[in-house]
């Protein structure tokens, strides 16, 4: 949606606003969230705001098939390191090997930033997005466990996040940033619904499996992003991208052995 819209910031603003009614609708069907879970919800909303901001600014400077692998792929590496240091979850050596292989594939995928004359200014924003992804992954995995109800927890995260991003962006750039076209709002509604479905499944998985492992498997979305960039947006599919896809797939297989 962000790549097809005229304004990347405006597209993310619409996606965020539509998160609010989705979150409220789901929350209305669940028991009230326990008090201990609310600090996690607030922390998650703040880190999601950072993620969205960095990702949006990166898309303004680079292709989907470059930005997404960097932004999403570095996150499992960070989560794995933090998990090992804090001993949050037991992760086997094979699983760590899979995460490391996945990281190698992502590095190969991002190599074109330096070799193909692409805009290198996308790198700090993409890496900032990766750090924010690692943070909210840890926060939401632990927060969902504390809450005891992953579905309700994510519903309230969507409400808080959906409120924070638009308010802050409008304060910074005024109301001119809000899209006026019905098509943008329709795409935003579809994107928000897909985002909620995908992320709620991921957070639920973190309540029954190691967070680092779920984070790594979640980043197989990189494969789909590359294909979408190639087939839908007509982005260049170089040999290095094909090799990187193979390495990423090998990493995912290792995490499941």
Describe the model.
Helix 2 crosses helix 7 (150-173), helix 3 runs antiparallel to helix 9 and helix 4 packs antiparallel against helix 11 (239-255). The chain is mostly helical and 257 residues long. Helix content is 77%, strand content 0%. The relative contact order is 0.21. The mean pLDDT is 82. The chain has one domain (8-255).
Q: Could you write a compact summary of the structure shown?
A:
With 257 residues, the chain is mainly alpha-helical. Helices cover 77% and strands 0% of the residues. The model has no long low-confidence stretch (mean pLDDT 82).
Secondary structure layout:
Layout: H1 8-27, H2 38-59, H3 64-86, H4 93-110, H5 112-115, H6 122-147, H7 150-173, H8 182-206, H9 211-218, H10 221-231, H11 239-255
Helix pairs in contact: 1-7, 1-8, 2-6, 2-7, 3-4, 3-6, 3-9, 3-10, 4-11, 6-7, 7-8
Give structural attributes.
globular; 257 residues; mainly alpha
Query: Could you state the order of secondary-structure elements as H and E?
Result: HHHHHHHHHHH
Number of helices: 11
Helix/strand class: mainly alpha
Domain count, please report it. 1
Largest sheet: none
The N- and C-terminal alpha carbons lie at a distance of 35 Å
Helix content: over 70%
Mean pLDDT: 82
Measured on Cα atoms, how large is the radius of gyration? 18 Å
Spans of 5+ residues with little confidence (pLDDT < 50)?
none
- What characteristic shape results from the CA principal axes? globular
């Amino acid at each position: 949606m962000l790549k097809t819209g005229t304004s990347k910031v405006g597209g993310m603003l619409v996606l965020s606003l539509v998160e609010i009614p989705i979150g409220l609708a789901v929350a209305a069907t669940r028991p009230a969230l326990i008090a201990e879970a609310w600090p996690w919800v607030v922390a998650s909303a703040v880190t999601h705001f950072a993620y969205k901001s960095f990702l949006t600014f990166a898309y303004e400077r680079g292709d989907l098939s470059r930005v997404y692998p960097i932004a999403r792929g570095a996150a499992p590496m960070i989560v794995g390191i933090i998990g090992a240091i804090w001993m949050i979850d037991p992760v086997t050596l094979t699983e760590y090997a899979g995460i490391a292989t996945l990281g190698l594939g992502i590095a190969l995928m991002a190599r074109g930033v330096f070799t193909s004359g692409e805009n290198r200014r996308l790198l700090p924003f993409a890496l900032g997005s990766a750090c924010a992804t690692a943070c909210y992954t840890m926060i939401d995995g632990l927060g969902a466990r504390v809450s005891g109800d992953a579905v309700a927890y994510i519903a309230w995260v969507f409400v808080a996040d959906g409120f924070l991003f638009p308010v802050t962006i409008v304060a910074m750039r005024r109301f001119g940033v809000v899209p006026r076209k019905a098509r943008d709002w329709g795409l935003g509604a579809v994107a928000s619904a897909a985002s909620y479905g995908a992320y709620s499944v991921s957070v639920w998985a973190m309540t029954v499996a190691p967070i680092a492992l779920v984070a790594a498997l979640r980043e197989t979305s990189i494969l789909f992003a590359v294909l979408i960039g190639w087939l839908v947006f007509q982005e260049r599919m170089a040999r290095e991208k094909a090799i990187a896809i193979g390495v990423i797939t090998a990493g995912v297989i290792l995490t499941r052995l």
